[in-house]
Design goal:
About 15% of the residues lie in helices and about 30% in strands. It is of the alpha+beta class. It binds flavin mononucleotide (FMN).
Length: about 230
């Protein structure tokens, strides 16, 4: 067990209903051998449990992206929280695209997509394109999101975003079919120099120009203040 400085959690508070360890106070600075992790009763654990089905929300506030795709004269946009970098060189990303989405059909057919990083000012449109399907809606027309052509792929890019990654799928049929998980190489990347240059984010003061991070139910965070530390302390 790790030492968690100065944190005291009442075991009674965690599991008072069943009366386990009632009235005892668990002190997290307790010696590691006092409670071998495997044997520690759940009622004594120093933190309340997060429902497993909601555990993804602890990681969910990486930047929300808009995924654009196109094939056969049809183009589309959807919101995605589940994307992340995978490799430096050549750069690769991971993205989950649900099998029911029109985006999935277009990406399966074209082998391409773009990740567009929307601003706080585009949060409402982000939620809208993540709530309706392009099968029933022309989401560009309905939301007013404006596009411009990408350089390396057929999917369009969305104007007013902070950054853009043009991606080409590296086929991994097992991951795609079983987990809706796509691996793609980033074949071009662009950024608004007002927010990102020389490899660094430096968001402008205008809060409308921050990247956004989805929680659930229409709730987002905007990126906060930057700060720096040194590994040497
Ligand atoms: C903020 C937000 C994040 C989302 N993240 C994902 C995601 O990572 N992967 C996914 O498949 N769907 C995600 N969705 C749901 C899709 O955006 C949604 O199913 C969309 O309607 C699909 O559109 P399409 O059928 O036009 O492709 C998200 C929705 C919202 C609002």
């Amino acid at each position: 067990m790790r030492n968690l400085p100065g944190i005291r959690v009442s075991a009674k508070g965690l599991d008072g209903a069943r009366g386990k360890a009632a009235g005892k106070t668990f002190h997290s600075n307790m010696a590691a051998d006092s409670f071998p992790a495997a044997a520690m009763p759940s009622a004594m654990f120093p933190y309340p449990a997060v429902e497993l089905a909601k555990s993804y929300r602890l990681l969910n506030h990486g930047p929300t992206v808009l995924v654009t795709s196109a094939h056969g004269g049809v183009s589309n946009v959807m919101a995605a929280s589940w994307s992340m970098p995978l490799d430096f060189n050549p750069p690769k990303v991971l993205l989950v695209i649900d099998r029911t989405a029109l985006t999935r059909e277009l990406v399966d057919a074209s082998g391409e997509f773009a990740l567009n990083l929307p601003t706080r000012a585009q949060a409402q449109q982000t939620l809208a394109v993540g709530s309706d399907s392009g099968r029933e809606h022309d989401k560009f027309a309905e939301t007013g999101l404006v596009t411009f052509p990408a350089q390396q792929i057929s999917a369009p890019l969305i104007a007013g975003c902070l950054g853009w990654l043009e991606c080409r799928v590296i086929p991994e049929p097992h991951n795609q079919e079983k987990y809706d998980l796509f691996i793609a190489e980033v074949v071009a990347a662009w950024a608004d120099p007002a927010a990102f240059s020389a490899g660094r984010w430096h968001f402008p003061a205008d809060p409308a120009q921050r990247s956004i991070h989805y929680l659930a139910g229409g709730a987002f965070f905007a990126t906060g203040e930057a700060f720096e530390v040194s590994a040497e302390g």
